[in-house]
Write a structure and sequence with these properties.
Number of strands of chain A: 8
Oligomer: homotetramer
Helix content of chain A: under 10%
Order of helices and strands of chain A: EEEEEEEE
Largest interface: A-B, 30 and 37 residues
Shape of chain A: globular
Distance between the termini of chain A: 20 Å
């Protein structure tokens, strides 16, 4: 497949609720960056997390093989440090290959889960 | 109407819950690619589904007549194979005519349904 | 303010549930095209509605004064004909001035309302 | 980090419900413009709010330091005047530096909260 996507992406929204009404992985409150690498080369991605009142943290590094997707939970990031809960943040993704990024949140603070999703902002 | 749209689209998010609180078609958990062919020629679309840990599957082929919409449920795809439930995926759409693609999920794992939607990523 | 926006927009998703758990206007199931005319001239907009299995309907015509917004409910369209409920559709907006279009649905088939929204697809 | 973003953004949707099922800040009904300033200079942003039947209000002015995010609640705007509740509006953001804007609503009129979000419309 001909390469599709962009190399720089940003998600201005970001907030992981610390509370969840469920303990299983599917329904715990989480934020995800769904990243598609539809091209024929491994994509090396550096993620930077921005905050309201302190310096950005990163890069968090992920690698996606050719022709694969990664639904990356911000909840799972630990290196160089975890993403704090109940805290406003934003994120920027810089890749050496074209990728597509979509942002999704599942909020289960209440037992009736709520979802949001949007294609992220792209350039480059 | 003058043609509107793009020929290549991608949805990085993708996840069909296997559980539903309802059995009628309207409220069963589902993911949809809403595809508008507003132009004057039949659009032939090849869809490729990407996974986390195996090779992509496709093409799934759909045809949309001129001046028609198709709200295509990923749940309904069967050829070359069904889209697995409870599994992270992404999708790419390649059309020979300009189209517009929007992604929607209805999640009824809980009886209080939840919705998400976004215009997909376009190029070409 | 310097003009902002595009002249042609499309929303591939479209579905107005016929059922609602509430009868007040705020909470009845509805779909909205939020249209901003931030420029200094009146915007004349022609809307075409596309269906799965019949010819498109339109134009529905709306006028937005300079520096005004219109949150247009598809439920309220009547001329040339109402938008059918429980029916898949798409829409295209053609304006003589730059505008911005965002699509929102409120689904109150269940008493726990659900929302979706996305910036529409733009060109021109 | 190399600058990322655009200087002009618009959100055509806008509606703050006056009712909430909760009184804590996290769960009160609100609308947010998440704004990322990923570049190395302070961003000065002028926000204009548009209405259905009266002249726009603004500019509301916010400043974001370099490498910071601001999740700005429309509920919190007061100067030159508050954003009215239960009222359709739209907003335009004009920045002297590249920024990224994402729109989010949390609706807690019912105790089962509902969310929507979308990357805003960008140009410039």
């Amino acid at each position: 497949m001909e390469a599709i996507g962009r190399r720089r992406w940003a998600i201005a929204e970001g907030y992981i609720p610390s509370e969840s009404s469920f303990s299983n992985r599917e329904l715990i409150s989480h934020e995800t960056a769904c990243i598609l690498n539809a091209c024929e080369r491994e994509a090396h991605i550096a993620i930077t997390i921005f905050f309201v009142d302190r310096e950005p943290v990163g890069p968090f590094r992920v690698t996606i093989p050719p022709r694969r997707t990664l639904h990356l939970r911000f909840n799972d990031l630990t290196d160089p440090e975890p993403v704090p809960r109940d805290t406003d943040y934003s994120s920027v993704f810089e890749s050496d290959q074209p990728i597509i990024v979509q942002h999704t949140r599942l909020d289960s603070r209440k037992p009736e889960i709520s979802l949001l999703s949007t294609t992220a902002y792209a350039e480059g």
